[in-house]
């Protein structure tokens, strides 16, 4: 008889995924005691320590990390089996994550189309910065994530779903943008390239008026005439008060990718939805 109880394994895996025994209990609609006992029984069955027992803190052991990583693949296989046994095509659930700006600018139309094509698929999405999205993906909290190509994606399978350019924008009400300060995001690859191109063309340093850690916020400030905003073109599509800056300092292309864990089993619902995002 196999010593592995899948329910115990799931309670343990969810405790690691969500960061605590209490979160696993809440997710599985059981008591904290039930999760703690399940982890203890799993440790006894496997004859290894999965977690280090500290009050109010979950710390996973090296062996526990290995078990957790293997459990992700196992539960992916189970999900794939469940999907293959579904008698109704296009039914099930897809969980993904994207940035706030993508959710506001590009996602609504795609979700509307998805609801028409796959009315019986439940689509759930979370918002976060790229680092958080990749962390959620590694922990198995989501099926796939959507990020820009300026991140290190070597740990993931990736598929291009959209491409465009970072551009400079001003408010349409601005007649003379020469003296406007620049509104930039934090120091990123594209902002470095912009500063370099500006230096080469203008023979002086670019003056940053504000540094804002949100493209949507930069676009809003730009609309109010507070400066020259620099952000991906898809953010400007739904903002009629903006226009491109008349001067060009180079081309700053980007690509958006759907990313998935390498070697993870991907069911047809996820594939179908990612296909829709590429259209």
Walkthrough of the structure:
The protein is an alpha/beta fold and 279 residues long. Among the domains are: 6-84, Arc Repressor Mutant, subunit A, CATH 1.10.10; 164-255, Periplasmic binding protein-like II (D-Maltodextrin-Binding Protein, domain 2, 3-Layer(aba) Sandwich), CATH 3.40.190. The protein has eleven helices and eleven strands. The chain has helices spanning 6-18, 21-28, 32-46, 62-85, 100-105, 107-117, 130-138, 189-202, 215-223, 233-236, 268-278, and strands at 51-54, 57-60, 92-98, 121-127, 144-148, 156-171, 182-184, 208-211, 228-232, 242-244, 253-261. The strands form two sheets. Strands 3, 4, 5, 6, 7, 8, 9, 10 and 11 form a nine-stranded mixed beta sheet that branches. Strands 1-2 form a two-stranded antiparallel ribbon. β7 (182-184), α8 (189-202) and β8 form a beta-alpha-beta unit. α1 packs across α4 (62-85). The model has no long low-confidence stretch (mean pLDDT 87).
């Amino acid at each position: 008889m196999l010593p592995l109880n899948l329910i115990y394994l799931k309670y343990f895996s969810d405790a690691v995924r969500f960061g605590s025994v209490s979160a696993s209990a809440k997710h599985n609609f059981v008591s904290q005691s039930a999760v703690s006992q399940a982890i203890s029984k799993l440790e006894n069955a496997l004859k290894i320590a999965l977690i280090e027992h500290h009050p109010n803190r979950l710390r996973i052991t090296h062996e526990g990390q290995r078990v957790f990583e293997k459990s992700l693949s196992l539960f992916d296989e189970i999900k794939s089996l469940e999907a293959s046994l579904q008698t109704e095509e296009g039914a099930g659930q897809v969980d993904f994550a994207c940035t706030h700006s993508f959710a506001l600018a590009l996602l609504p139309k795609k979700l509307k189309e998805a609801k028409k094509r796959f009315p019986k698929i439940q689509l759930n999405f979370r918002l976060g910065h790229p680092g958080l999205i990749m962390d959620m993906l590694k922990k198995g909290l989501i099926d796939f994530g959507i990020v820009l190509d300026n991140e290190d994606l070597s740990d993931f399978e990736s598929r291009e779903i959209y491409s465009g350019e970072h551009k400079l924008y001003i408010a349409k009400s601005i007649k003379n943008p020469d003296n406007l300060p620049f509104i930039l995001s934090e120091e990123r690859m594209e902002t470095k390239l912009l500063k370099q191109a500006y230096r080469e063309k203008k023979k002086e340093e670019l003056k940053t008026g504000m540094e804002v850690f949100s493209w949507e916020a930069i676009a809003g400030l730009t609309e109010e005439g507070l400066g020259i905003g620099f952000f991906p073109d898809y953010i400007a599509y739904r903002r009629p008060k903006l226009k491109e800056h008349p001067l060009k300092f180079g081309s700053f292309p980007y690509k958006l990718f759907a990313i998935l864990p390498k070697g993870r089993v991907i069911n047809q619902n996820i594939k179908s939805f990612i296909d829709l995002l590429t259209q």
